[in-house]
């Protein structure tokens, strides 16, 4: 009897974990550059003495969906959309280089360039980008950031930094707890993207299909309810069997 209980329990646990993943995706349906988290379950045969008839369920992270999100024209000079396979280098919460497709940037009061979620943007040297006071700013297709200093004319347009935009293999990217991607083999740094690395005045939206995620959430909830019922009935059957044994004893 315990076989059915354990099988149903592992299924219910996997359903709850999958629901958490879908909820995370839904919460980020409007986050610029967010990549849908993929999750899956697989059978896990239980081996040991006797007939191997028990197959439990395990949940595992399947990475992310690399499909590009919709392009939204904003006209903002600090909004950028990375080209296919390109990622913006930012400073992660651990102080190390991390990567994001969130191209919605802004300046702090002290002139530091950060993403909309507060992560400092890095230049090609791996240092946070700081922008002096300006009256006009633009970002080139290769990530070059130029400004016209305050009180100066257009002829004084000067380059102050070049954003680090890397060309990364999706298979070498893993999502951290802070939502940023990291290089799984840091001893092999990603190369600076060449050619048209990004587009200015455009933001890439999330690639989460909100409608599909809601349908998936409903299906997972039904699966979970079914698995809980199996656990309940298995427990009731065990109690009935124990009662019969006591009567026969």
From TrEMBL:
Assigned protein family: Belongs to the flagella basal body rod proteins family.
Subcellular location, record wording: Bacterial flagellum basal body
Keyword Cytoplasm: no
Taxonomic source organism: Stenotrophomonas ginsengisoli
Record flagged with keyword Lipoprotein: no
Residues covered by the Flagellar basal-body/hook protein C-terminal domain: 200-244
Family annotation (Pfam families): Flg_bb_rod, Flg_bbr_C, LlgE_F_G_D1
Quaternary structure and partners: The basal body constitutes a major portion of the flagellar organelle and consists of five rings (E,L,P,S, and M) mounted on a central rod. The rod consists of about 26 subunits of FlgG in the distal portion, and FlgB, FlgC and FlgF are thought to build up the proximal portion of the rod with about 6 subunits each.
GO annotation, biological process: bacterial-type flagellum-dependent swarming motility
Protein's recorded name: Flagellar basal-body rod protein FlgF
Cellular component, GO annotation: bacterial-type flagellum basal body, rod
UniProt cross-references to InterPro entries, sorted A to Z: Flag_bb_rod_N (IPR001444), Flagellar_FlgE/F/G (IPR020013), Flg_bb/hook_C_dom (IPR010930), FlgE/F/G-like (IPR037925), LlgE_F_G-like_D1 (IPR053967)
Domain Flagellar hook protein FlgE/F/G-like D1 as annotated: residue spans: 87-146
Record keywords, A-Z: Bacterial flagellum, Cell projection, Cilium, Flagellum
């Amino acid at each position: 009897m315990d076989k059915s209980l354990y099988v149903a329990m592992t299924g219910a646990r996997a359903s709850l974990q999958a629901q958490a993943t879908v909820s995370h995706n839904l919460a980020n349906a409007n986050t610029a550059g967010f990549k849908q988290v993929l999750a899956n379950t697989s059978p896990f045969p239980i081996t040991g003495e006797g007939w191997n008839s028990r197959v439990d369920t395990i949940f595992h992270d399947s990475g992310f969906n690399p499909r590009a999100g919709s392009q939204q024209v904003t006209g903002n000079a600090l909004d950028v959309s990375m080209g296919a396979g390109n990622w913006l280098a930012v400073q992660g919460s651990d102080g190390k280089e991390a990567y994001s497709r969130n191209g919605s940037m802004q300046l702090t009061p002290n002139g530091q360039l950060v993403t909309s979620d507060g992560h400092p943007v890095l230049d090609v040297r791996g240092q946070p980008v700081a922008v002096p006071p300006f009256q006009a700013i633009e970002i080139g297709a290769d990530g070059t950031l130029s400004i016209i200093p305050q009180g100066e004319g257009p002829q004084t347009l000067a380059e102050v930094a070049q954003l680090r935009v890397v060309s990364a293999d999706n298979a070498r990217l893993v999502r951290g707890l802070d939502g940023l991607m990291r290089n799984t083999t840091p001893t092999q740094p990603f190369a600076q993207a060449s050619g048209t690395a990004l587009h200015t005045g455009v933001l890439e939206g999330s690639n989460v299909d909100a409608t599909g995620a809601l349908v998936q959430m409903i299906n997972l909830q039904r699966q979970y309810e079914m698995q809980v019922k199996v656990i309940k009935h298995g427990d009731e059957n065990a109690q009935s069997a124990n009662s019969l044994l006591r009567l026969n004893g």
